[in-house]
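Re-run with default settings, no changes from the original entry. Doing this only to confirm the output is reproducible before filing.
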Amino acid sequence: MSTRKTVSPWCLASWLDRSSILLFFALWELAPKAGGLLETFIAPPSVVVRTLWDLLLSGELLGHLAVSLGRATTGFVVATLVALPLGFLLGGNFKSFERIVNPVLRFLGQVNPFSLSPLFIMLFGISELSKWAMIFWVCIWPILFNTITGVKGIDPFLVKSARSMGIGLPTLFWKVILPAASPGIFTGLKMGSGTAFFMLIAAEMIGASSGLGWLVWNAQINFQIPKLFAATAVISVLGMILNTLLVMAEKRLLGWRVSLPNS
């Protein structure tokens, strides 16, 4: 009697994921060695890693990293502190306030942040404030609109049931409204964290002399391709790390959703 081993779909998907990543890095490593324009404009992973190591040993990378993290974190945190209360107001029972403010906010949310760079410079100069403002601008909209969606998606029966049991407004907010709206909030936070590092490069090209975005710009104008790829890789990894941390926090705080039959 023969036995046949079966491969689970999860194992197969995991193997395919790893294979695609390995294939990508293999092609990235080999393509520049073919010569021509690829060799001129693309730095292979081995060269990028060596450049990162040199930057780390010299202390240059840590200095730029600290500056960029400070700018991205400041813009993201301030955007969160503004977007969450406003999102609860617009998503709640303040219908008149929502009708007045929501169309304006929707319009502003569609404005290209790069086109506002001259405005930020005129208002705040080339100081740190202009860089924080640019990051704040791109972060606030996904957090705000997803918070509104999360609040509007709360089952009214939950609120009515809680109120019928005599629960006060503070307890109602912390025990019912906030947990029910948290999935939408975390979606906005993850989107905002991604756009924060996306905008970081543009923000640090405005009158900056430090930061990972400045490192990318400086490497570009001096045609230092390995350093350009190295700085870009660090920015991408930072965005992935922050997104992963938010996903872990979401799973930890919203683990109760897994037990729900319709979640």
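The radius of gyration is 23 Å. Residues 54-254 form a domain with the MetI-like fold fold (CATH 1.10.3720.10).
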